[in-house]
Amino acid sequence: MPGPAAAVTEDRRVCVTGGNGFIGSWLVRVLLEKGYAVTATIQSGTDAAHLRSLPSGGDTSRLLLREADLLDASALAAAVAGCRAGVFHVASPCTLEDPADPHREIVLPAVQGTLNVLEAARAAGARRVVVTSSISAMVPNPRWARDHPGRPVDEECWTDLDYCKAHKKWYPVSKTMAEKAAWEYAEKHNLDVVTINPSTCLGPLLQPGLNASSAVLQQLLQGSKDTQEYHWLGCVHVWDVAAAQILLLETPNASGRYLCTNGIYQFKDFAETVAKLCPGYNVQSFTEETQPGLVACKDAAKKLIDLGLVFTPIEEAIKDAEASLKAKGFLVQHQLQI
Q1: pTM of the model
Q2: Active-site entry in 175, 298, 319, 328
Q3: What is the pLDDT of residue 208?
Q4: Strands of the sheet with 193-198, listed across from one edge
Q5: What residue ranges do the domains of the chain occupy?
Q6: What PANTHER family has UniProt attached to this entry (predicted)?
Q7: pLDDT for 77-103, tens place per residue?
Q8: Per CATH, the architecture of 4-202+234-262+296-311 is what?
């Protein structure tokens, strides 16, 4: 029978799915810093060496690494077992390339994986599940501006699945369907679930590979003319997302969805800020509105702000991300010819 030490560890042990991804790695780092014991799931064949180099990451009593595919319910159940303090579901398929089979590669793992994690959390008696959704479950929704003139996008906004399917935007489809499945499961089984919906997430990369949100900045710095059309709702520093996730676990009265962005504004304004902060790149200057009808809002994440979250300035997120992209070889700076 486990002694008192084991009970204390279990009371402070949490699970992080997708623990070696961009957001997951930062979440694991901050959790370890705050004294939690962490079980992190990783996909087979992916690199997790950087997690071991984190402070306390080499202590296997503090950080356990478990291979668990999102569609492997038994592996997820084994990883989540004992994580009574809570579960952070971060893992979700995301690719920089267009998927050959969107349902099999993106949608099914996101939706069924979420249900598998929730089932594992319920079986483990986890206190709460914090599901990392995305702004991709809130936008694109071209009808919002027409249906709610003058109102900023908020937690009541859901992505238009028909629009996304018609435009082959499969990641928003997967995140929207997965979050809706999570809410249906939570209601059916009376499971304590909250969701966080981060905007474009920037900051230092702990993981070795390039992730999709960091690629938005990388491509902008390299001259991309993509306006991010209906997909943009601002950006947020990755450590603010980690702080918000933990805040949502630790705040008993937290409930529902939480938009996590340091303001809503046009992508053209973001590009202008990037051009000023990062000289020497060929940053596109957008002369016209990039997000038609988007209503700007400085305190768009009011629900999180009201819980006490203080956001890092976007300028810091941009500079931290640029420095990290350069250090890891994902960015080559070319001085402009005058």
Answers
A1: 0.94
A2: 175
A3: 95
A4: 63-67, 37-42, 13-17, 86-89, 129-132, 193-198, 256-260
A5: 4-202+234-262+296-311
A6: NAD DEPENDENT EPIMERASE/DEHYDRATASE, NAD(P)-BINDING ROSSMANN-FOLD SUPERFAMILY PROTEIN
A7: 999 999 999 999 999 988 767 778 889
A8: 3-Layer(aba) Sandwich (3.40)
